[in-house]
């Protein structure tokens, strides 16, 4: 990270996303050794500060990983597909003799892990989804979209889009219809022209951060929150495609439980032969 750059307090996670896009535009995290921090304090105070910093880094890193999970959900091919009418009828008519997988409700998760930690996890995922949708809408790289979302919350997205498109086509702020907004967008774009100035390193594996920030049950918390989010999105996707409310309520938990494997599990269960 460029230590000269001030990180706005409102930023939730994306300053830890050393993310790069693959050919499909989906973000992927890059991990390497965390940069050292220097403290001009005595040894005892340094230890206390390091402990607080470590937890802060763990919390931000957890939000970053969860944000990338949310960003990937935005691009999920299943949730972005249409369901043929025949398959919708199969969903509606499929047998309910088996119990669907159990995905915990938000209230159950809050009771088990506390409201604060569940909200932190949800916030990271929501932030990642917001940034990925902005990235697609503005047609800019993921990291640039993260900065625009964070630093231009007071500007309507349509105005930001107009400024981004103008700068791509013209490159000159002075002739813009709204120079003040275009100038702000231009400053963000200019910052990313400096090679390497926005790389943030994350070392270790995700599980160590879950434990460091959320406690001994951090891995379980993250797993169950991810299931719940997947189930919520699957329910909305099913209803959007015409699956009736009762069937959508039943089948969404399969997606929450199986995630990517959903497409190999559910088709067998809704087969007309059954």
Structural notes for this entry:
The structure is a single chain. Helix content is 59%, strand content 2%. The model is unreliable at 1-16 and 31-41 (pLDDT under 50). Helix 1 crosses helix 8. The protein has one domain. It is mostly helical. Strands 1-2 form a two-stranded antiparallel ribbon.
Average pLDDT rating: 78
Net shape: flat
- Read across the widest sheet, the strand sequence of neighbours is 1-2
Helix content: 55-70%
Order of helices and strands: EEHHHHHHHHHHH
> Structural class, from helix and strand content?
mainly alpha
What can be said about the biggest beta sheet?
2 strands, antiparallel
Radius of gyration: 22 Å
Short key terms for the protein model shown above:
mainly alpha, disordered N terminus, 274 residues, two-stranded antiparallel sheet, single chain, 11 helices
List the helices and strands and how they pair.
Blueprint: E1 19-21, E2 27-29, H1 43-74, H2 85-93, H3 106-113, H4 115-138, H5 142-151, H6 157-169, H7 179-191, H8 206-214, H9 218-240, H10 245-258, H11 262-269
Antiparallel strand pairs: 1-2
Short description:
The protein has eleven helices and two strands.
């Amino acid at each position: 990270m460029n230590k000269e750059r001030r990180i706005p307090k409102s930023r939730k996670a994306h300053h830890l996303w050393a993310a790069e896009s693959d050919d499909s535009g989906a973000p992927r995290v890059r991990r390497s050794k965390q940069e050292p921090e220097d403290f001009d304090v005595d040894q005892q105070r340094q230890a206390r500060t390091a402990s607080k910093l470590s937890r802060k880094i763990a919390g931000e890193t957890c939000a970053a990983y969860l944000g990338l999970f949310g960003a990937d959900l935005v691009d999920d091919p299943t949730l972005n597909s249409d369901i043929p009418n025949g398959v919708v009828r199969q969903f509606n008519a499929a047998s309910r003799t088996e119990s669907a997988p159990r995905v915990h409700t938000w209230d159950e998760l809050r009771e088990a892990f506390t409201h604060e930690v569940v909200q932190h996890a949800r916030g990271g995922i929501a932030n990642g989804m917001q940034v990925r949708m902005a990235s697609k809408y503005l047609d800019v790289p993921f990291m640039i979209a993260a900065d625009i979302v964070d630093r231009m919350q007071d500007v309507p997205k349509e105005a930001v889009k107009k400024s981004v498109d103008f700068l791509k086509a013209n490159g000159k702020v002075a002739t813009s219809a709204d120079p003040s907004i275009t100038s702000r967008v231009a400053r963000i774009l200019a910052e990313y022209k400096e090679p390497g100035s926005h790389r943030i390193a994350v070392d270790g594996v995700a599980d160590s951060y879950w434990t460091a920030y959320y406690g001994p049950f951090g891995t379980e918390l993250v797993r169950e929150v991810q299931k719940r989010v997947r189930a919520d999105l699957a329910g909305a996707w099913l209803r959007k495609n015409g699956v009736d409310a009762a069937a959508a309520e039943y089948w969404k938990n399969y997606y929450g439980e199986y995630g990517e494997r959903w497409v190999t599990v559910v088709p067998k269960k809704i087969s007309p032969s059954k």
